[in-house]
Amino acid sequence: MLSQSENRGEHALVLNQISKAYADKTVLNQLNLTVPFGSVFAFLGNNGEGKSTTIRVLTGLEAPDNGSVSICGESLYGRRKVPLPGTSRVVPDYRILARLGGLIEAPSLYPNLTAEEFLGIGCRIKRLPKTEIRRVLSVVSMLDAAKRVIAQFSLGMKQRLAIAHTLLGDPEVLILDEPTNGLDPSGIRDIRELLKALPATTGTTVFFSTHNLDEVEKMASRFAVLKDGGIRFESDISTWQSAQQFNMSLEVADAEAAQTVLQQHGYTSKTINNTLVQVEHLARYEQPQLHAVLVRAGIELFQSYQNKRSLEQWFTNENTD
Amino acid sequence: MKILTDTVGHTADLLRVETLKLKRTSTLLMVFALPLLVVLFCMGLALKSQDVSQFDAEAWQKWWMGVLALWSYFMLPLFIALITGAINGNEHKNEGWRLMLALPVNLSSLYFAKLLLGALLNVIAMGWLWLSGVLATFVISAFGAPPPPDFGMQLLEALPVLALTCLPVLVIQHALSWRFGNIIVPLSVAVIATMGIVQIGSSQYWVWYPWSYMMTSALAGSGEIRELALWLSLAVTAGLFWLSVLTAAANKRAG
Known about the structure:
The structure holds two protein chains of two kinds.
Chain A: E1 11-22, E2 25-36, E3 40-44, H1 51-58, E4 66-71, E5 74-75, E6 77-81, E7 88-92, E8 100-103, H2 115-126, H3 131-139, H4 155-166, E9 173-177, H5 185-201, E10 205-209, H6 213-219, E11 222-227, E12 230-236, H7 237-243, E13 245-252, H8 255-264, E14 268-273, E15 276-283, H9 287-296, E16 301-307, H10 311-319
Chain B: H1 2-21, H2 27-49, H3 57-94, H4 96-101, H5 107-142, H6 153-165, H7 167-179, H8 184-195, H9 197-201, H10 212-219, H11 223-247
Helix pairs in contact in B: 1-5, 2-3, 2-5, 3-5, 3-6, 3-7, 3-8, 3-10, 5-6, 5-7, 6-10, 6-11, 7-8, 7-11, 10-11
């Protein structure tokens, strides 16, 4: 019998050829997805593309029609015979869920309990010491609210408490469905910083779905876009950012002279006014070279700034094709 | 052996968790209020419509029988529906299913733990029914009734059997409350079924009607019939429990 750390497999999560249909609607169509250990993985997609279904499949709430799910190297679903002749059904091995922390859709809390009592539920089921309650409350900065009844909490506090519950026992993988939903800006920042730091502090892999694309750029190390039941695009955030072309505005003493120099060096540019030039379709790596060209040609360059295309703009364009 | 101890330990943990979830809810109030209501009703009836100074041993026995009858064929089925509704309603109302099923929880153990909690609350309610009955006898005595010959031993002896013969109804109501988010469904079933207890229970078809087992085991004149009700309810409980566990996963966790 291998210990948990020895039996981790190569990836935190692997979805292999997952298909799922409801009545006559195919939601997931041979979906393949691999989530590396230690990543903060964002899962994007428009409403109805199957993000929540994928999360329900990952947490054992929905069995896939076809395909396999592996969590830290262990297969989540197996077949079990049922007491009807010649029949069997796909069922999750609930013990594997001990390696996960899951927050599915809105936080599920019992408003009549205190924060401490609520976390006691997860502690008892996972058989953790009670000291774990104070640890996770401190991670989400809620130690002061330990003895308060949940019914009195704001939406942000409820969300943080639900995340604290998923952190009980330092699970190897966190699966979160829209974790910043309904939070105010400071709440979003707190959750972002918390989740971003988790791989480094506890080694936890974070997999989250979201509609907040700005958050993805700030928080995730990798992302995938779900479309038509399959992965349409997948990339590291840093690779995606460096591959993105953007426009750059240059404030110079003489826009005409700068325009001439830029065209001589093959840049696509246009003058906006006497002191402003816009260079188009520039890649990130071309930026230092552009500055060097202008300086070498004796152009007085006062300021330059990127008109960067955000992930949101990119996502919108990709999904309106 | 290890699997067995693990399963028992897991179920015990879930039972503690389920008990914790009832903290600061009106469920415990129900456990004490409904039996008290039965006793208060019987006490009020005795004080209002009878000359309690004439209470002899037979009258006391009848009074205790009245408490038992009202509890077994009227309040108990409704109490079971309300208790199982509260235990499962906690999850429906607060989306607790998602929380519980994202944890390493065996669904069958969760189902059983909730059922067990319902049975335990039932036993507590019955104990309180007897105790509040004893307290009521002091009140009736204070109004001039001679002291009772015993403290409702007849009721006390009937309650353990009643706790077993109500199990089929407990399983049915638990399965309905587990399945349906709206408490109206299990409650309607309970109300309609309770209305049929006296008529069907006193006919030859009582064996086909699990709601009648409680009344039969408590009030039937023949010892044989009472024993039959007990064994029948145990057999029906086993069958219903097996069936309901098989279907418990539907609409909850995958599978």
